[in-house]
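Q: What would this chain look like folded?
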Amino acid sequence: MSTTDRVVAADTGPRLGGNLGALHLFFSVMAFNAPLVVVIGVLPIMLAVGNGVGTPMAFLTAGLIVAAFAVPFTRMARVFPNPGAFYVYITAGLGKAIGLGSGFMALVGYLSVNIGSYGFGGVVFQSMVRDTFHGPDVAWWLWGALLWVVTTLLGYLKVDLSAKVLTVFLFLELAVIVVYDGAVMFKGGASGLSAAPFAPSHWFDGSFAVGLLYGLGMYGGFEVAALFRDEVRDPARTVPRATFGLIAVAMVLYGGTAWLYINSLGVDKAVSIAGANPPGSILGSIETFGGHVLFDLAMVMVTTSTFAVILAAHNISARYLFNLSADGILPRRLSGVHAKHGSPHAASLATSGIAFVVLAITVLSGADITAFFGVSLGLASFTGVAAISLANLAIALYLRKHHKNQFSVWSTVLMPVLAGIGLTVELVLTIQNFPHLVNTSTGVATLLLAALIGLFVVGVVMALVYRRTRPEVYSKIGRQ
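A: My prediction, written as structure tokens:
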């Protein structure tokens, strides 16, 4: 199928509507990364179990790997107009069978983030009301239900409204981080600012593999820039700007904050302090250098940051459901586009329904919600790394086959090779450390990993069956 055929095919299917600019798209994507949750919830863990004092370099290394992938990724966004991001790109470069299997895995990954974050959001909301504002001690699942209602409403409406909400929340949480960073820098940390965390002698402290594993995970979700292609102004310019903007800001924000956090504890004591009490160490640092007011704001913004993740993951999941249903893989009624809002309202409601059922089962079974959240993030980590790795290969093959005269060898060979090396290492590390990621026994982790791989195989088999029995559906896989 020629590039022209692809454009025509894409124009005949259901299309979403929106008017997002580069800044709103950037905030929508960045919100999925939940910067304040990363700073408070992940940084101390990376310091304790990752590569210790060298943690800032783990973030910077991860950012360089993602940036290398972003070069061909954004080139693909310019020449391939179909919405669907990784699902579409993998299909274009590696075929419909692998594309459909990848689409199923990516959908489960984003649903896992969405559903798991409801539980985490309920817990942090409960803590904020009870401990920060000294309000009533309400069960976490009631707060989770409130988050579900608000998310369902915003997900049903035009994406521009969700983007505005995410922009406000993200701006506030970024402000908290910047104020904290400025306070540590102004006061000179615990005993003067040291550049030791950037020294080569500390790069491989502890476990660099685990540090890199966490670091790469904090850049997840940037494919959303391409997933919202139909809902932005001038996607050929907006998508690359939002993608590279996210990577640049994340590298500076996470790497810089990690460096200042280590200095706030003292380079020689940072690892032991973080290991003894991971969340307490960063919260104590925020209160010591930023004061009680900043501490209270941080506790509030962690809650809103978690809601931003929920809303962003909901919107992403709904669009995966929309694209799969538009292709005829899932029921066609899920590809309905709201006449007024231009939103995937049917897919959005289905996403909320799935979350409600899973959360209800979790509550009624009495499962540990913290453990449930950990499992959901572990599932998302594997599916994310697998999808990016396949997309990197698929995009390189597609660009070399169809656009090698349009783009340089730098874009179609060198950058994909460099990204591929880093992503392959990351995928191996993810599999090796999967029990740690899902925080379960090796047996349970093996079953979960087998289920994810099995889901990919189901997609491959479905595509092959459709090729023989329903060629009209097979021809549309990947929004082709």
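The chain has a mean pLDDT of 85.
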